[in-house]
Amino acid sequence: MHLIESLNWRYATKRMTGEKIPDKELETILEAIRLAPSAYGLQPYRVIVTENRKLIQQVFERSCPQAVLLQCSHLLIFKARKRLDEAYVEEFLKEFRSARNANNEQINSYREKMLQVIHNPEINTFSWTTHQTYLALGYATFAAAQLGIDATPIEGFNSEALNRLLALNEEEEETVLMLTLGYRNTNEDRLAHQPKVRKPLHLLVERL
Ligand SMILES: Cc1cc2nc3c(=O)[nH]c(=O)nc-3n(C[C@H](O)[C@H](O)[C@H](O)COP(=O)(O)O)c2cc1C
């Protein structure tokens, strides 16, 4: 599909059919998440992907009673990091060094910049990492649309309950977003044929 055509086609689907999406498409969506930009490239989030009906049922019952969960093919759960420390930066730098064949001077200067941010008391780490997680969600949503797969971004859930269900170490990470993937049920979704509600461009964009 053409880019704008697919963005007009997609919508936050409220009812899905339960049909499975192909593995290949799922992997493409996950790859889009991997390729999403993040501050310094630190990717301070992780994504759980599941099609386990028992787990999804529990997520529905304990954290997010939105019907689309029970009808999706796969559920993605985005977790943002609660803390970024020197060890995390060093892991990243290992990858950076091998991918870019970077020398010590480049590595040291990049490390310096990242540590300044990480140690800046005015920056709330969780808020910072959460912002970036939204971008990853955006990439997944867009990739799905390009593939003709429906996706519903979800932040209306009880994060604490979901963290408990997933037995997360809340000092390390917390759930912030979910995304259901699947196919729209055009008979049962009251939004399936609704036009988009968006501001006209001139109210959104200021051209200077
Ligand atoms: C961060 C975020 C959180 C959202 N949370 C929910 C949600 O919990 N449940 C839901 O049905 N839709 C949710 N939506 C979907 C929005 O309501 C929807 O994107 C918006 O109304 C625009 O409509 P459209 O995406 O269908 O074009 C969310 C969207 C975003 C981007």
Descriptive account of the structure:
By secondary structure, this protein is of the alpha+beta class. The protein has one domain: 3-Layer(aba) Sandwich (NADH Oxidase). The chain has 9 helices and 4 strands, in the order H-H-E-H-H-E-H-H-H-E-H-E-H. It has helices at 3-9, 23-35, 53-62, 68-71, 86-100, 104-118, 125-146, 159-165, 201-204; strands spanning 45-50, 74-81, 150-154, 173-182. A 4-stranded antiparallel sheet has the order 1-2-4-3, with helices on both faces. Helix 2 crosses helix 7 and helix 5 packs antiparallel against helix 6 (104-118). The longest helix has 22 residues, at 125-146. The protein is globular and about 60 Å long. The mean pLDDT is 97. The structure holds flavin mononucleotide. Flavin mononucleotide is lined by residues 11-12, 14, 66, 152-156, 196.
Keywords:
4 strands, globular, four-stranded antiparallel sheet, alpha+beta, binds flavin mononucleotide, 208 residues, NADH Oxidase
Note the topology.
Blueprint: H1 3-9, H2 23-35, E1 45-50, H3 53-62, H4 68-71, E2 74-81, H5 86-100, H6 104-118, H7 125-146, E3 150-154, H8 159-165, E4 173-182, H9 201-204
Antiparallel strand pairs: 1-2, 2-4, 3-4
Helix pairs in contact: 2-7, 5-6
